[in-house]
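RECORD TYPE: inverse folding
INPUT: structure tokens
STRUCTURE:
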């Protein structure tokens, strides 16, 4: 048996309930994992509210964790008992123990703790594909990054600076503005008060940015399009303020032959090869000192409702980790 945080219905934080669940023996290709640290992600909120349905209920929430391999199912040779491992994008992370397919796991280098892995696997791999694949950032590019002091934002902005970009950060408070500056952001827009496209034009001598990394969604969609240079890339990768409303693609032509993409990490780690490549790149960036991992909130797994409340209230910065 394992302690787990499950939902029986979609809704508010009161739907998160702590329960004892049976843990099966690992089947062929699977391992039993003792999880010590679990990452908190905004997708957990979308799952809890039902914006992204999770399938059959009850369901254990959580998409990212790190821990130690305790037992191997038949045919597993990619990891061994006692290995420290982590994974992103596998529902069921809010639990002390779980069974998971071995090919979803990445072995941790000695330089990365389980807590650190739980803070960066999902968010860091997201920053990686956004910066290298959704739009390949080049030296001299100006880019716009929303929620820049948040989980994904803190990693994305640090990495973008090492790629030679001019980073314009949108943040929701003065405290977050300080953090964005510490992370190397060149300019900060307090976007709850300031006009985003107007400030972006001022900061780029009228040119606009090469890419807008928009995780806020509904509230900022038009501002992002209006901040891009001709042929700029709109990367809409989240819905913290609600999903983007349907729009007329002709608008992309009118605003300067813009490109639009709506990516998900799920595609970018869909095979064990993609996952391993991304993780190697991410851990390399940590080991080389490009990324400083900022675990600014920790909670007991049992206090996950508080963690969700803080995330939705825009009260967190950097990464949040739940500890078993
Ligand atoms: P964050 O730590 O960035 O927290 C969310 C932040 O969004 C808040 O702190 C707040 O920052 C900002 N925000 C703006 N409007 C709202 C609102 N109405 N309600 C709540 N927050 C708001 O979370 P994560 O790092 O976990 O995720 C960031 C975003 O990236 C999410 O939208 C998530 O869905 C997305 N994501 C997408 C992935 C993908 O592959 N497509 C993968 C991973 C994450 P501020 O106060 O500065 O505005």
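DESIGNED SEQUENCE:
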């Amino acid at each position: 048996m394992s302690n787990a945080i499950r939902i029986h219905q979609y809704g508010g934080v009161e739907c998160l309930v702590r329960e004892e669940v049976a843990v099966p023996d690992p089947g062929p290709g699977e391992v039993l994992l003792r999880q010590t640290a679990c990452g908190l992600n905004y997708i957990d909120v979308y799952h809890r509210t039902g914006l992204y349905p999770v399938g059959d209920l009850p369901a254990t929430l959580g998409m990212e964790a790190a821990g130690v391999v305790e037992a191997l199912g038949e045919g597993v040779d990619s990891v061994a008992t006692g290995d420290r491992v982590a994974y992103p994008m596998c529902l069921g992370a809010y639990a002390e123990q779980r069974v998971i397919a071995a090919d979803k796991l990445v072995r941790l280098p000695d330089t990365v703790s389980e807590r650190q892995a739980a803070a960066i696997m999902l968010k860091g791999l997201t920053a990686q594909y956004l910066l290298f694949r959704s739009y390949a950032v080049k030296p001299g590019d100006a880019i716009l990054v929303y929620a820049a002091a948040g989980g994904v934002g803190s990693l994305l902005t640090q990495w973008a600076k090492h790629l030679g970009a001019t980073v314009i950060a949108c943040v929701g408070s003065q405290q977050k503005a300080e953090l964005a500056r510490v992370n190397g952001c060149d300019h900060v827009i307090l976007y709850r008060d300031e006009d985003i496209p107007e400030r972006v034009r001022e900061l780029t001598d009228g040119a606009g940015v090469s890419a807008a990394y928009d995780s806020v969604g509904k509230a900022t969609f038009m501002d992002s399009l209006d901040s891009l240079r001709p042929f700029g890339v709109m990367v809409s990768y989240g819905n913290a303020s609600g999903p983007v409303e349907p729009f007329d693609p002709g608008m992309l032509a009118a605003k300067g032959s813009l490109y639009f993409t709506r990516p998900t990490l799920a595609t970018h780690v869909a095979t064990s090869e993609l996952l391993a490549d991304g993780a190697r790149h991410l851990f390399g960036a940590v080991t080389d000192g490009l990324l400083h991992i900022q675990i600014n909130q920790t909670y007991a797994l049992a206090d996950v409702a508080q963690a969700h409340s803080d995330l939705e209230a825009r009260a967190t910065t950097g990464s949040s980790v739940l500890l078993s």
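NOTES: The pocket of NDP is lined by residues 41-43, 122-123, 126, 147, 149-153, 171-172, 176, 215-216, 237-241, 263-265, 311-312, 314, 316 (CB under 6 Å).
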